[in-house]
Write a structure and sequence with these properties.
Shape: globular
Radius of gyration: 22 Å
CATH class: Mainly Alpha
Strand content: under 5%
Distance between the termini: 25 Å
Number of helices: 16
Number of strands: 0
CATH superfamily: MFS general substrate transporter like domains
Oligomer: single chain
CATH topology: Growth Hormone, Chain: A
Length: 446
Amino acid sequence: MMPRSLNGRRLMCRRICGDRRYGATGDGRRPAWGISKWLPEGRYRQRVLNPVLPRRALYMASFLLACGGGMVFSLLGRLQDKYGFSTAGLGFLAAATFIAAPIANLGLAPLGDRGHTRALIASALVLGTAGSVWFAFATELWQFIGARTMIGFAFGLYQPASRGLILRNATAVGDGVGVELARLSGVDTAGFTIGPAIGALLVKFLGLRAPFLFVAIALPIAGFRLLTRLPSRPPNGFPTEELPTQRLALDLLRDAKVRIAVLLAIGNFLPVGVYDSLWARFLEDRGASTLFVGFSLSFYGIPYVLAATPGGRYVDRVGPLRAIKVAMIGVLPLVVLYGIMRNPWLIAILALLEASFGAIAQPAAQAAMAAACPGDRLSAGQGLASAAASLTAAATALIAAPTYARIGPTGVFAGAAVGIAVVMFSALAIAHRMGWNARIRPLAVK
């Protein structure tokens, strides 16, 4: 029987639930049945039933890392003009991040499932800061590529670790996985897309180095706040001896469901390499200024952030696969229209519309991977999906730049739309044939 006094209830709940920062008990299960109805309403109830993660600090660090990678979007044309890069050089510069990230995704992201999430996040913050400083003072192409490689490696460490942390938090207490992933994805997208606008303003008033120095200063501040508040404990309450021992994430590909989730991640990121390597040059060829290029990406980022939570709820309600199907029906015509439109303002409006569907497709693909993976391999699964997505973006970035110079934007964006359709609907067809709906299984129940 629960004590009647408020303090007595709190003490009893702490004894049953273990550390009050975690809703899971010591063996990874939810608190005993019926405990929740005895908890007092308010903040303490949430602290017991839901693991308290420093979400704001986690989101801020993710936003700044994404800013460091996204700021270069609006500056590629200006960097090319100042330092004399070839168009192919732009492709290599854009692809550097996407090539470095998979190395961290596949080789180091599984460490997050073995209790080293804190170390992964700290390493990512250090590399992101160092890469931003190097990019600010670089003068040659190989230096810019090296700095982008460091930033890409930082992404490869941070994203799977943070997603695994969010997923373990959400599934341990039955929260909406789609909503949690959508919010984190919205923060990342905001950094990538609003970052260029911030960069364009800083360049206009403070010079070409200012955007990257801004990230180099702000990221350690946010990182310190995050690391001092991040709980240090084996993931999801599993005892240390039960943690997975696999060193790489590639063994997950033996499962057909994981392969489907990887295809969904590839389809989502297939056009990203095109945007990364061509967006600035594409809009400038349409007569847009550097400032407009930076703000045009905000037309994608702002509605994405606003639509992230409703999009995540939609994913939780209808399931990841059905949500992706709906999103693709909306995205594909918009990608084709990019190559046809001549007015920069109309292109920016298309980006706004695409963002609304992207806020559904991205968390749906991540939720599908979470559903496909074992409960103790969540970080490894997210790392595998990120690696596949990054390699796809790198390949399309390398191909898109010379293709754009040869055949123009119409063929490039039409080809991207065809590629998205083939990959996505092939994955959905395989899942339908298997009878898999990618619904999340509660991690808490053993």
